[in-house]
Amino acid sequence: MTDQATSQSAALQGKPTSASRTTLSHIMTGNDTNLLGTVHGGVIMKLVDDAAGAVAGRHSEGPAVTASMDEMVFLEPVRIGDLVHVHAQVNWTGRSSMEVGVRVMAERWNESTPASQVGSAYLVFAAVGPDGKPRAVPPVLPESERDHRRYQEAQIRRSHRLARRRAIRELRERRGREGLQD
Question: Looking at the DSSP assignment, which residues form a beta bridge with residue 75?
Fold first, then answer.
């Protein structure tokens, strides 16, 4: 077996959810605000994408790109001076794609109150090789009951994504056959 084949074989062994789990923390400043004086949702989304990208790259042991953001939920506004913690982990893996779940927590930098959840998101990443084409990723191995639940929920979201994509494609094809313009 060649060195390349050996490294590909080793890369496809399953990895536990804890192997790539990470937290990214950032203190929010005036540069992060929107017109309402709270932190702009796009700033939070970038932190979410950064943390999820780090997790996807760790899990896949190489470059991974954002393929989609399934859902981004903002539960409470984030304020200037809040210390934001973005927790991310791989929930599910396919052949070359991964779903990463992200939980966003915020706490006041100058208070001793516990952090509260202010958002959550699910992103899909595709692992890519040097040629920019998809490459295989190791399966994720859920470790806890929570990890198993997240894995199962990710499978439901995946089936919904695929069904939605299929339904839209079929509608466009039907409209095209009928000579209707979009």
Answer: none
C-beta atoms surrounding 180 within 10 Å = 9
Per DSSP, the residues of 78-117 read -BTTEEEEEEEEEEEE-SSEEEEEEEEEEEETT--SPPEE
CATH 3.40.50.2000 corresponds to the domain 3-142: no
pTM listed for this prediction: 0.86
Amino acid type, 42: G
First to last CA, the chain: 53
Q: Which residues have C-beta within 8 Å of that of residue 121, sequence separation ≥ 6? A: 45, 48, 52, 69, 70, 71, 72, 73, 101, 102, 104
The Cα–Cα gap between 175 and 182 comes to: 8
Could you tell me if 168 and 123 are in contact, meaning their C-beta atoms sit under 8 angstroms apart?
A: no
Query: Using CA atoms, how far apart are residues 27 and 78, in angstroms rounded to an integer?
Result: 10
Give the separation between CA 8 and CA 13, rounded to whole angstroms. Answer: 9
Cα 14 from Cα 12, distance rounded (Å): 6
**Domain boundaries, given as residue ranges, for the chain:** 3-142
Measured CA to CA, the distance from residue 104 to residue 26 in angstroms comes to: 11
Q: Which helix (H) or strand (E) holds 147?
A: helix 145-177
Segment 86-133, tens digit of pLDDT? 999 999 999 999 999 999 999 998 888 899 999 999 999 999 999 999
Q: Is the pLDDT of residue 3 over 70?
A: no
